[in-house]
């Protein structure tokens, strides 16, 4: 089998699964913070953990994680994401953690405003003199519990 045919078949199987996997991908696409078919505005989810900073990903290191597209900044990060994407995905589908905990709303994020808590990535809104990470830090335990509960209303 030629490599291009094998790649096409692999792509088709990943993106056109029958039954439950396809339904899960569809739900992820509608509930996660995805804009122009891209999560985290193109930032590399692995970089938050490995480089401890927000780094823009590259299209050539794209990973489709059950219908949610991520860009990685390197081949090494892409390999890590492919092995276990759920370990690197942001909590609450990439929506603002503070807003999810405070009001149960899906609010946009600034991908450069983040916090890693117990090995999980949390993203926050930060614009117009409103850095919600500061508010989150004041009541993290309570807000996290509420956010966990509120997110289940959107995605379970």
What does this structure look like?
The chain has 156 residues and is of the alpha+beta class. The chain has two domains: 1-88, no CATH class; 90-156, no CATH class. Helices cover 44% and strands 22% of the residues. It has helices spanning 3-15, 20-31, 45-50, 75-83, 97-102, 132-138, 140-154; strands at residues 34-35, 38-39, 58-65, 68-72, 110-117, 120-124, 126-127, 130-131. The strands form four sheets. A two-stranded antiparallel ribbon has the order 1-2. A two-stranded antiparallel ribbon has the order 3-4. It has a two-stranded antiparallel ribbon with strand order 5-6. The longest helix has 15 residues, at 140-154. The chain is globular, with a radius of gyration of 16 Å. 32% of the residues are buried. Mean pLDDT is 90; it is low at 6-20.
How are helices and strands ordered from N to C? HHEEHEEHHEEEEHH
* Overall number of strands: 8
Please tell me what the overall shape is.
Answer: globular
Mean pLDDT: 90
Helix and strand arrangement:
Elements (H helix, E strand, L loop, with lengths): L2 H13 L4 H12 L2 E2 L2 E2 L5 H6 L7 E8 L2 E5 L2 H9 L13 H6 L7 E8 L2 E5 L1 E2 L2 E2 H7 L1 H15 L2
């Amino acid at each position: 089998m030629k490599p291009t045919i094998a790649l096409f078949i692999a792509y088709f199987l990943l993106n056109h699964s029958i039954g439950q996997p396809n339904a899960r991908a569809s739900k992820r696409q509608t509930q996660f913070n995805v804009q122009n078919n891209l999560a985290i505005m193109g930032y590399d989810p692995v970089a938050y953990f490995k480089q401890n900073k927000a780094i823009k990903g590259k299209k050539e290191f794209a990973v489709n994680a059950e219908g949610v597209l991520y860009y990685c900044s390197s081949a090494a990060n892409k390999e890590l994401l492919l092995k276990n994407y759920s370990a690197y995905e942001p909590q609450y589908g990439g929506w603002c953690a503070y807003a999810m905990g405070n009001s149960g709303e899906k609010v946009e994020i600034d991908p450069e405003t983040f916090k890693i808590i117990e090995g999980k990535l949390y993203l926050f809104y930060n614009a117009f003199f409103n850095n919600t990470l500061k508010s989150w830090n004041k009541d993290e335990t309570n807000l996290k519990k509420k956010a966990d509960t509120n997110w289940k209303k959107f995605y379970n």
